[in-house]
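COURSE: Structural Biology Practicum
ASSIGNMENT: Worksheet 4, Part C
STUDENT ID: 0417
INSTRUCTIONS: Below are two proteins. For each, the amino acid sequence is given first, followed by its structure token string. Answer the questions at the end about the second protein only.

PROTEIN I
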Amino acid sequence: MSERAARPRTAPQAEVKAPAWPGMPVLVTNVALMIAALVTVVYGSVMAEGAAGMLAPAGRLSAAVVMIGGGLLYLAIIGPIIFLGLKVVRPNEALVLTLFGKYYGTLKSEGFFFVHPFVSPVNPFGPVAPVARPTSGALAAPGAGRRMAISLKAETLNNDQQKVNDKLGNPVIIGVVVIWRVVNTVKALFSVENYKEFLSIQCDAALRNIVRDYPYDIPRDEAELSLRGSSQEVVDRLRGELQGKVEIAGLEVLEARITHLSYAPEIAAAMLQRQQARAIVDARQLIVEGAVGMVEMALAKLNENDIVKLDEERKATMVSNLLVVLCGNRDVQPVVNSGTLY
């Protein structure tokens, strides 16, 4: 086996602008030439009939045959071949062209162009349209995957929600939406089989890998990042990791957002009780801190204005009564003491 045959084939990586010319002048010229060829065929046929009906020079009959043959050649072969080279490119779309199996170039500019008649555009998804996942209830248009143009528009990937264990081992349900676009058409078509399916799989893998590094939620006094409290940091890391994985496919991840985050149904009730208990404890703690501050202020005002002299035992009784009033969750029932504190 020769060295050239043993060398592995590598897919093209860089985009090349395909040589193209304005399509409208070529179209008008080709139509005019086909009309002229038709007129030539008709005129040659009349000339041949006239030459056959009377004794005419041999050169006249030969000229008629040449005119008919040339006109038919242009009408049947040359004209249709030129029509094959006319391509239309819509805004934010691109045509990736190959010539006899080799990459020829990419048309990214919108308009009507004439290219080499024997080039063929590459279908982004092969001969069969892919089954797209429904997003937001929308259905894919019939035949949308069979179009030869590759879209350069920003697109949305909304994968199914996943059940993943967080850092603490709790199963959570999480869903993300990714906004992306194609920036290198050559890599998108020749480096991977299906760049949309490739992006979807890499998004699921990156999401699972990142969720395992964060707990679902943490107390407010802790500085650790969590899925619920640090969603922006989580999606920024997701975007960076996903961009590194899809670089080979010529894709750019513009944005990532968490669309759904909750505990799995099997532990949702228990975790809800835990959150409620934590909220009650936090509320009680805030009430106690406020009550202690009010008691300190009351004692300071009494001593400052010299309203009444309280010994330590009476201060303790007053503090106890004020804390009961301020921290209780029911209305206070006043009790009139007709005797002394002792």
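PROTEIN II
(use this one for the questions)
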Amino acid sequence: MNLLSSLRYLVALDEHRHFARAAQACHITQPALSNALRALEEEFSVVIVRRGRTFIGFTPEGEQVLESARRMLHEHKVLAQSLSSTADRPTGRLLIGAVPTAVPIAARFAAMLQARHTDLMPVVLSLSSTELEQRLESLSIDLALGYTDRMNLREVQLTAYPQYNEHYFLLRKAAKPHAVELQIGKPMEWRAAADLPLCLLTPEMHNRTIVDASFAAAGCKPRAIIETNSILTMALSVVAGQVCSVMPGALVAAVRGYRELEALPLVAPQVLTPISFMAHATVRPSRAMEAALVLAQDGAWLRHAAAHTGLLTSH
């Protein structure tokens, strides 16, 4: 039995909650995955997986094995990166998860990190806040970019690296296309935005919770006529349709090339939501992670992030 491979299969089963999908993710057959898990059970003389006609879950002993498996695989990655890296040339993959509204900033961060350390391979994943928290807890991502105020919702200990404050804008078609790019207009009150036909994120998204609470603080409810969990759909519905949208500055900056659009800062109230990189506080960082944390706290990077997320004054 290859212990590390069997542990990977176990973690994959936890992630996919389905034997066939876990086997597919591991590029093996389902019988091979089942045999490896049975060998793991024989190795530790406990039942790990609760089986029926389909996957049911893990036994209490299985949960202990799963927790150890995650940490052993993490330590294996840390060791492998340490052995393949030199003092000034870290190597390896870095899995970065980001809530959809922060993906443009995560993309910029990954590009700058890879330019600084060319042997690194950042992998950027768009995840909901709940998925982000689950994956941090299970050590299936290294770094998360999301809402700081959600840090204490789970038992896992996290360390936050503050990045920027999310500002909010009303995105709409301009009366006349600007000569160069999207124009930043005069502030609009949330109450006035509530009267407009809006494309908003779906209710389970944390950003939608923030937006709804902002309208409520202004004493009104938004008129959503399109809902989506896709930030691209939010932007293109404004470009192609007759709707407006409420977007944070990071997304507005990403569509700045659309000169037919304008973005109006939303006020009364002015809402600022802290966004941070978050990392597991109790595990040893890999070389790739160490390099990422240096950049995440670098003054030049933080100024760059602020320039593409704040009030976005017109050029």
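ANSWER KEY EXCERPT:
Q1: The domain at 168-271 is CATH 3.40.190.290 (D-Maltodextrin-Binding Protein; domain 2).
Q2: Residues 94 and 122 are 5 Å apart (CA to CA).
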